[in-house]
Every structure is written in structure tokens, then in C-alpha cells.
């Protein structure tokens, strides 16, 4: 088996506040193989973005990584000193954020920003770096890159800016790209272009991608595997087709049913009662049990651990019971 | 006469002056600049129906919504609701009576509720403004009733908006819209700021209330799947014009206009894992200098000479020369 590019084991992230310690991430484990796109979905507050920030070492105080380990190609990166982490960021891990305007410096031309990033990470001369920047811009689909490279970010449209950000993320040939809601700020027609682009470029280079988004549609079309997060934990993780078409975890079932689809006309959408608990009041046992239609006594006491089932991992006692029955 | 449409929008147009200040224009020798946000938009909504407008940002859908409720005067055209033209100064008294029956729900429930008012005061405001209840006790009872109706507890009335989540706030906004016994509710992206599971709750609630009170909705959204779920008829907007209008089913199964086809093809949808998509070309052009003729022509795969010169009229539900001439086979 090939070594995973990213391997996260039992990750815990906490935020220390006046009202006590909030567990934003509580025991999250997953791997991403080379060239694989892992989608991370969940609703706001599920901890998907914090997971991404933890991997690139951008958890700011009062947040801290409270446990577990993060390995990049087998090498631990969660306990590296800030300077060493800074060298990995941008070089070995590229980042694409939601709002392209905030990830680009408005005072520098697109070319200056690309050349600076390229030269920080690769031993190239200014001329070579510029050449490479133009190639990259052409590759991400910016027309007339020789001319556009000297433009400022405000001279680009939203979709074009996001293309520049993708070029920036890929310029040092990273092994892993973390894309946090890369298409959320864009219009649907542009959204599709950006998804296709990220997917194609990463497939060509064998770059692993962690795609964080709340949009199941984007995940369904882009990701190879998907992790459904709830209250800082992974409820279900597995191949995207299985999880979307036949979800096992009751939360995943509810989530998929709640999404209106272009095909088929359901009269009513599936409704999950209540809303996600606040971080300060995560229920004991399974965090989803107060909202779960199928909860039973054990769910409110015992926290389910991920079980292997149908090629995926599900954290739900329902399947534990089924297994026990099958065994007896 | 039940044949008469409840809401009728006729050739609505709205132009915004986006010129620089006078002095800058003089110094830089620039002309005044105008942006036509909405151009020649007509549609009708029957009583008890949900009509939706979809489009990407800048397509003018929210501007139409604002004109329909009377928040923004149109530059040309008119809006007639239940037989009353709402921008006719000669019928101001009738328009005032009509106001009670029209309400709006906005996208951002964090911005549309006054943070300094308790929820009961927010919901009671339309009741008081239209003198619908005589005594304070009646108002309180009615507020409690409305809160229960939208799935909250009457005791929630004593709280402030910040104590509620986004979905609960949108419920409060719906309760406020219902407080004046509105019949026609304009919803501008009512669920865009919400998480999917909460969105499902709000959409289901809106449908239940429609069944119960026979409400008529004008539903504005950029999300095609949501629109498909909610609306019986849909208008697709592009750069201020309706390019295609039709029943929800037909439009999604047999889209005709090239833009509708492109949009439907572009939307990431959970039912379509692993399919190959056609690459969409280009982005929405700047509305200050829209392309000549059909504004979609620079992105259209079926473009020919006539599209660059003439604006296609909306005929049989589609505004496209290629469709009118039968040059595109039905999808």
C-alpha cells in the first residue's frame, strides 16, 4: 500500500475561553492518499475549517492542538516549531481559501505575488520565476497571461482571482492542497469551472486535496472520499458514491435528504429536528443523539467509536448492535 | 373572476445612475454612467402559487423583488397587485390598504431584525402599525400564536434576536411577515445564509404555511435546486432580463435557452456523482456596458450574426433567436 500523503490520528483541538475549554475537534482520524480528493462536509460549527487550519498549523491562540498527531508523508508536523512549519506551508502544503480577495495582497501585482512565492520555495532566478508564473497562469485558464501578470487583484473578476489563488497554491508543487470553501463566494457557472480546474490540476500532479465545504453538490462531483463531520467528530467517512447514495449514519442520512436536488421532486425535504449543539454544550455519548430518530439508551451514555462497515467508517451504535447480532 | 392574476408585472425597468460625482466628471471629462439593472421584465403570479426568479449575482432578481414590494420605484413599467397598480399616486389610499397584504422576507436574518427590540415587539410591529388588534392583551396572544405557528415557543417572545440561531431568526422574520395577515410574501434568498438541514426546515415551514393560508410567494434565489423544490413556475434571469420562463418541470427537464441549459449543466448536484461536465465558458459581463443584442451572445455556443444586433423578444417563454428559428434541437 502506498503511504498516505496526509495522515491525521485522533486529532483534538481546543479553544480555551472564559467559560471553559471548548472542544472544536474531538478525536478526528483520516488519511488522504496521493492524488486523492477527500471532501470534508458538515454544517457551520462542525469543525471542518478548524481541521484544515490544524493541518496547516494555523490554529491561533486561544486555540491549541490538544492531542493526536498529524503526519505529512509519515513525518510529524503538528509539533514543529513555527519557523519549520512556515517553510512547509506554501511549499509542501498549498492553501486555497474562500475569499480570493483576502488571500491576495491588493498592493502587489499578481505577478509579484507569484514570483515571490515561487522564489521563496524554489531555487529559481527572477526571470525563470516569472516565466513559470506565466505558465501557471495560462494553466489555470487566465487569458493573455503575459499581459495579465502585471495586473493588480482588483482588476480581476471573482472567478479569475480564484484562479490566481489556485496558481499561487500550486506554484511550489505541493504534495497536499487544502481548499477551504474554494467556490462558495462564486456564482454557479463559475463555480463549476473552478471545481473542474482544481480537480484536473491535482489529478495531473498527483497532489492530494482536502476539500472543505458545506456544499454536498460540490463534494459529490469532486471528491473521491468524503468525511461527514458533526460537532467536531467524524460521523461517517467513505467513498463519496456510497456515502451520498446510501448513507449509514443517521446524521448523514438526514443531511443528504435535506438537500433539494435538481432531479426528482420530493414533496417535503427530510428534516432533522433541532440544530447542532453549541461547543459549550456538546451532549454526552453520541453528540447527535438528542436529534436522532433512532437513538436508544446507549447513545446518550457511550460515545460510539468508528466501525468498519461496507468499506467505510461509521461512528454509530446502530451498526455496532447489528454486528453483535450477526456474531451471535 | 379567478382568472385574473394576483400579481402582474408589466415591462418593468430600472436604471441606476452610477456616475461619478459631478466634479470628477468635469475634471476627467467623463459622461454620466447608467446601469440598467432590470430591463423589460414581465410576469404574472396566480393566487396561491410560488413563482421563482433565478439568476446569478447581478442578474437583477433582487431589484425586481424590491420593485414588486414597492421599496424601489421602477424607472418604467408597472406592478399591479390584485388589480391595484402600486406606483399610481392617484390610488394611494388603495395602495396603503394593499401594503398590509404584502410582506417581505430578507436573506440575512442577522440584519433584518432590530437587535435592540425584543422578539415580541418585532412581531407585534405590523399588528400595531396596521391597527389589527385593539388591546395589548390581544396583541400578546396573537404574537404567541404566531411564534407557535413558526415552530417557536410563545415564551421566546421575551428574548432578543441575538439569542437565536440563524434558522430561528428566519422563523421570526416569517412570523413577522405573517403578523399582518399577509397574502403575498416576497422572499429574497430566504435560505441562502442557512445550513442545509436548517434550510430544509425553513423550506418545509414555508410550504406548510402556504398550504394553510393560501399564501402567494415570489421566491428569489440563485440556488436552482431550491427553486425547483419550491416553485411551480420559474423565470430565469440574465443581466436584467428574463431569458426563459416556464413551469418548473418543463424548465428543468427541457430547458430551451442556451443560458438555462448551461446553468443546469453547471450546478453541482448530489444526484450526479462522477459525471463529466461540459466546461462553461466565460463569466457574466459588466452590466454597465452590456454586450449588444442578446446580452448572452459572447458566451453562447449557438451565436450567430443576428444575436449581436437584435435583442431577442420573449416568445413562447424563451428569449432566443436560435430557439425561435429552430436552430437548436430541444434538449
Topology of helices and strands:
The complex is a heterodimer of chains A (328) and B (331).
Chain A: E1 6-17, E2 20-32, E3 37-41, H1 48-55, E4 63-72, E5 75-76, H2 82-88, E6 93-96, H3 100-103, H4 110-121, H5 126-139, H6 145-148, H7 158-170, E7 176-180, H8 188-205, E8 208-212, H9 216-222, E9 225-230, E10 233-239, H10 240-245, H11 250-258, E11 307-309, E12 312-314, H12 317-327
Parallel strand pairs in A: 3-8, 3-9, 6-7, 7-8
Antiparallel strand pairs in A: 1-2, 1-4, 4-5, 9-10, 10-12, 11-12
Helix pairs in contact in A: 4-5, 5-7, 7-8
Chain B: E1 7-17, H1 22-28, E2 34-45, E3 50-54, H2 61-69, E4 76-81, E5 84-85, H3 92-99, E6 102-105, H4 119-129, H5 136-149, H6 166-179, E7 184-188, H7 196-213, E8 216-221, H8 224-230, E9 233-238, E10 241-247, H9 248-253, H10 258-266, H11 305-309, H12 321-324
Parallel strand pairs in B: 3-8, 3-9, 6-7, 7-8
Antiparallel strand pairs in B: 1-2, 1-4, 4-5, 9-10
Largest sheet entry of chain B: 6 strands, mixed
Q: Give Rg of chain B in angstroms.
A: 22 Å
Shape of chain B: globular
Greatest interface and its participating residue counts: A-B, 47 and 43 residues
The description of the largest β-sheet of chain A is: 8 strands, mixed
Give the termini separation of chain B.
37 Å
User: Tell me, what's the shape of chain A?
Assistant: globular
**Overall SS class of chain A:** alpha/beta
Q: Give me the secondary-structure category of chain B.
A: alpha/beta
DSSP summary, beta strand count of chain A: 12
Q: For the CA atoms, what is the radius of gyration of chain A?
A: 21 Å
H/E order of the elements of chain A?
A: EEEHEEHEHHHHHEHEHEEHHEEH
Number of continuous helical runs of chain A? 12
Structure notes:
The complex is a heterodimer of chains A (about 325) and B (about 325). Chain A is an alpha/beta fold. Helix content of chain A is about 35%, strand content about 25%. In chain A, the strands form two sheets. Chain A has an eight-stranded mixed β-sheet with strand order 6-7-8-3-9-10-12-11, sandwiched between helices. In chain A, helix 8 (about 190-205) links the parallel strand 7 (about 175-180) and strand 8. In chain A, helix 4 (about 110-120) packs across helix 5 (about 125-140), helix 5 packs across helix 7 (about 160-170) and helix 7 (about 160-170) packs parallel to helix 8. The radius of gyration of chain A is 21 Å and the shape is globular. Chain B has about 325 residues and is α/β, with parallel strands linked by helices. Chain B has one domain: P-loop containing nucleotide triphosphate hydrolases (Rossmann fold). Helix content of chain B is about 35%, strand content about 20%. Chain B has twelve helices and ten strands. Chain B has helices spanning about 20-30, 60-70, 90-100, 120-130, 135-150, 165-180, 195-215, 225-230, 250-255, 260-265, 305-310, 320-325, and strands at about 5-15, 35-45, 50-55, 75-80, 85, 100-105, 185-190, 215-220, 235-240, 240-245. In chain B, the strands form two sheets. In chain B, strands 6-7-8-3-9-10 form a six-stranded mixed β-sheet, with helices on both faces. In chain B, helix 4 runs parallel beside helix 6 (about 165-180), helix 5 (about 135-150) packs across helix 6 (about 165-180) and helix 6 runs parallel beside helix 7 (about 195-215). The mean pLDDT of chain B is about 90. At the A-B interface, helix 7, helix 8, helix 9, helix 10 and helix 11 of A face helix 7, helix 8 and helix 10 of B. Chain A: Keywords: ATP-binding, Cell membrane, Membrane, Nucleotide-binding, Transport. Chain A: InterPro entries: AAA+_ATPase, ABC_Ni/Peptide_Import, ABC_transporter-like_ATP-bd, ABC_transporter-like_CS, Oligopep_ABC_C, P-loop_NTPase.
Amino acid at each position: 500500500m502506498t503511504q498516505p500523503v496526509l495522515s491525521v490520528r485522533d486529532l483534538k483541538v481546543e479553544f480555551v475561553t472564559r467559560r471553559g475549554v471548548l472542544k472544536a475537534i474531538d478525536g478526528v482520524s483520516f488519511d488522504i492518499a496521493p492524488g486523492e480528493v477527500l471532501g470534508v462536509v458538515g454544517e457551520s460549527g462542525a469543525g471542518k475549517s478548524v481541521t484544515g487550519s490544524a493541518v496547516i498549523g494555523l490554529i491561533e491562540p486561544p486555540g491549541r492542538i490538544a492531542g493526536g498527531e498529524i503526519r505529512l508523508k509519515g513525518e510529524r508536523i503538528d509539533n514543529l516549531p513555527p519557523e519549520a512549519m512556515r517553510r512547509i506551508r506554501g511549499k509542501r502544503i498549498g492553501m486555497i481559501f474562500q475569499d480570493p480577495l483576502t488571500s491576495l495582497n491588493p498592493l502587489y501585482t499578481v505577478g509579484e505575488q507569484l514570483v515571490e512565492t515561487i522564489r521563496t520555495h524554489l531555487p529559481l532566478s527572477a526571470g525563470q520565476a516569472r516565466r513559470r508564473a506565466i505558465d501557471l497562469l495560462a494553466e489555470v485558464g487566465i487569458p493573455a497571461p503575459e499581459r495579465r501578470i502585471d495586473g493588480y487583484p482588483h482588476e480581476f473578476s471573482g472567478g479569475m482571482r480564484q484562479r490566481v489563488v489556485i496558481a499561487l497554491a500550486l506554484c511550489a508543487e505541493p504534495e497536499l492542497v487544502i481548499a477551504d470553501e474554494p467556490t462558495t463566494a462564486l456564482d454557479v457557472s463559475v463555480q463549476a469551472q473552478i471545481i473542474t480546474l482544481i480537480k484536473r490540476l491535482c489529478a495531473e500532479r498527483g497532489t492530494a486535496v482536502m476539500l472543505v465545504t458545506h456544499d454536498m453538490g460540490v463534494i459529490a462531483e469532486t471528491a473521491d472520499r468524503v468525511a461527514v463531520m458533526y460537532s467536531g467528530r467524524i460521523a461517517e467517512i467513505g467513498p463519496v458514491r456510497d456515502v451520498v447514495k446510501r448513507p449509514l449514519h443517521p446524521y448523514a442520512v438526514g443531511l443528504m435528504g435535506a438537500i433539494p436536488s435538481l432531479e426528482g421532486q420530493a414533496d417535503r425535504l427530510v428534516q432533522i429536528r433541532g440544530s447542532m449543539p453549541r461547543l459549550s454544550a456538546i451532549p454526552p455519548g453520541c453528540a447527535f443523539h438528542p436529534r436522532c430518530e433512532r437513538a436508544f439508551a446507549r447513545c446518550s451514555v457511550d460515545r460510539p467509536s468508528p466501525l468498519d462497515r461496507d468499506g467505510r467508517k461509521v461512528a454509530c451504535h446502530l451498526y455496532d448492535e447489528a454486528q453483535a447480532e450477526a456474531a451471535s | 373572476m379567478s382568472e385574473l392574476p394576483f400579481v402582474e408585472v408589466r415591462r418593468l425597468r430600472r436604471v441606476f445612475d452610477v456616475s461619478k460625482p459631478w466634479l470628477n466628471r468635469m475634471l476627467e471629462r467623463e459622461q454620466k454612467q447608467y446601469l440598467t439593472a432590470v430591463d423589460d421584465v414581465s410576469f404574472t403570479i396566480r393566487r396561491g402559487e410560488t413563482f421563482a426568479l433565478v439568476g446569478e449575482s447581478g442578474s437583477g432578481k433582487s431589484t425586481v423583488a424590491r420593485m414588486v414590494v414597492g421599496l424601489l420605484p421602477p424607472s418604467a413599467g408597472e406592478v399591479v397587485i390584485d388589480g391595484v397598480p402600486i406606483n399610481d399616486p392617484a390610488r394611494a389610499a388603495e395602495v396603503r390598504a394593499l401594503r398590509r397584504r404584502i410582506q417581505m422576507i430578507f436573506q440575512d436574518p442577522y440584519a433584518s431584525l432590530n437587535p435592540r427590540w425584543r422578539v415580541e415587539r418585532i412581531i407585534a410591529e405590523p399588528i400595531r402599525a396596521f391597527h389589527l388588534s385593539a388591546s395589548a392583551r390581544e396583541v400578546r396572544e396573537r404574537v404567541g400564536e404566531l411564534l407557535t405557528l413558526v415552530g417557536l415557543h410563545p415564551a421566546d417572545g421575551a428574548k432578543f434576536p441575538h439569542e437565536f440561531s440563524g434558522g430561528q431568526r428566519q422563523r421570526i422574520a416569517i412570523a413577522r411577515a405573517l403578523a399582518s395577515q399577509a397574502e403575498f410574501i416576497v422572499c429574497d434568498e430566504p435560505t441562502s445564509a442557512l445550513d442545509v438541514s436548517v434550510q430544509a426546515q425553513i423550506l418545509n415551514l414555508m410550504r406548510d404555511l402556504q398550504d394553510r393560508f393560501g399564501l402567494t410567494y415570489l421566491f428569489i434565489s440563485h440556488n436552482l435546486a431550491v427553486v425547483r423544490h419550491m416553485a411551480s413556475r420559474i423565470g430565469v434571469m440574465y443581466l436584467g432580463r428574463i431569458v426563459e420562463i416556464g413551469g418548473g418541470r418543463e424548465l428543468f427537464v427541457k430547458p430551451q435557452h442556451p443560458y438555462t441549459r448551461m446553468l443546469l449543466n453547471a450546478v453541482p448536484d448530489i444526484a450526479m456523482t462522477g459525471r463529466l461536465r461540459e466546461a462553461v465558458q466565460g463569466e457574466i459581463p459588466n452590466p454597465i456596458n452590456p454586450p449588444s443584442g442578446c446580452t448572452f451572445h459572447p458566451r453562447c455556443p449557438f451565436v450567430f450574426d443576428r444575436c449581436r444586433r437584435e435583442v431577442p423578444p420573449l416568445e413562447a417563454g424563451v428569449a432566443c433567436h436560435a430557439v425561435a428559428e429552430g436552430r437548436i434541437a430541444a434538449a
